[in-house]
Amino acid sequence: MDYLLEEVLGYVAVLGKPNVGKSTLSNQMIGQKLSIVTDKPQTTRHRILGICSGPEYQMILYDTPGVIEKKMHKLDSMMMKNVRSAAINADCVLVVVDACKVPQQIDEVLEEGVGSLKEKLPILLVLNKKDLIKPGEIAKRLEWYEKSTNVDEVIPVSAKYGHGVDDVKEWILSKLPIGPAYYPKDIASEHPERFFVGEIVREKIFMQYRNEVPYACQVNVVNYISRPTSKDFIEVEIVVEKNSQKIILIGKDGKALKLLATAARLDIEDFLQKKVFLEVEVKVKVNWRQDEDLLRHYGYGGQIRAF
Ligand SMILES: Nc1nc2c(ncn2[C@@H]2O[C@H](COP(=O)(O)OP(=O)(O)OP(=O)(O)O)[C@@H](O)[C@H]2O)c(=O)[nH]1
Ligand SMILES: [Mg+2]
Questions:
Q1: Nearest to 23 by CA among 31, 15, 35
Q2: What's the CATH number where 159 sits?
Q3: Which ligand 1 atom is the nearest neighbour of the CA of 17?
Q4: Is 303 inside any structural domain?
């Protein structure tokens, strides 16, 4: 019961625009891949809770969807609700920015993410992807963010390569209150495994298909049977908006879907550390991204999904 000891403990909201590296940073801090990472914006759709435990601390990180201005679908608005709900318990906030981009104000990200709490919460600006630009340029960016924003500190990092991540942890630890640990030390998340299975399939869709197709997909794990003496049986449905997308997903003679299922199965087996039997089916639900009831059913209602 060592998790009842008093220690540094608290919640951290990880905010930022799409594609800046929020999920890469969160995964690095947790030391495990909980959030999927792709080179496309708007990869993360839910807020993902990850737990980073050390001998005397426990940080509960919320990786969030990227803050966007133009909300084209109801899905976008509901994703922004997931951003806001991550900040409710937050003890401090990380705003991640891309060091390669021309510096920009972060008001909008803070407004969408923490609203009126922004005056009260300690804020760290994480200048990410420093590996992609020259040290001299980094110094200029750092100075700009220190001068032009109201953040408490700016730390340059390269989340992809783990550089500077310990400095971020140290900053967080200096801001968190003392309390009893919430979670056993050996768990990294409270999301059930089936959530990650769905996310792995989504990642493979991003990797295999181009343009609009990945964004039109919702992945549901409809059946998950754990079988201690044989392979787990997992049934996944991919919901798309139009028949034309279904045709693309399946491909000629079902080849594309087979490729996808194999890539996903290998990663799922790696994640679960056991063999699985994976069945993937494609369904059409016209305009699901605009259907509020369906979106809630799929878990975009601002709550962590209950299974
Ligand atoms: N070179 C470099 N690439 C990085 C770094 N951090 C993240 N990336 C890349 O940037 C892309 C986006 O990373 P994500 O972690 O998915 O970004 P995100 O902010 O979570 O994106 P959304 O979930 O879409 O909002 C991926 O291709 C990453 O590999 C970094 O420090 N250096
Ligand atoms: Mg992400």
A1: 35
A2: 3.40.50.300
A3: 25
A4: no
Q: Is residue 86 part of a domain?
A: yes
Range of the domain at 251: 193-297
Handedness of CA 289, 290, 296, 297 (dihedral sign): negative
Give tens-digit pLDDT for 28-73: 999 888 888 989 888 998 888 888 888 888 899 999 999 998 888 9
Q: Which residues line ligand 1 (CB under 6 A)?
A: 16, 18-24, 37-39, 41-44, 65-66, 128-129, 131-132, 158-160
| Residue 288 and residue 295 in contact, taking contact as beta carbons nearer than 8 Å | yes
Q: What is the pLDDT of residues 242-264, one digit of tens each?
A: 999 999 999 999 999 999 999 99
Residues 106 and 7 in one domain: yes
Task: Report the nearest-CA residue for atom 10 of ligand 1.
Answer: 21
How many Å lie between the centroid of ligand 2 and the Cα of residue 134? Answer: 25
Ligand nearest to the CA of 22: 1
Residues 156 and 204 in one domain: no
Rg (CA), the chain: 20
Give the ligand whose atoms come closest to the C-alpha of residue 21. 1
Same domain? 15 vs 51: yes
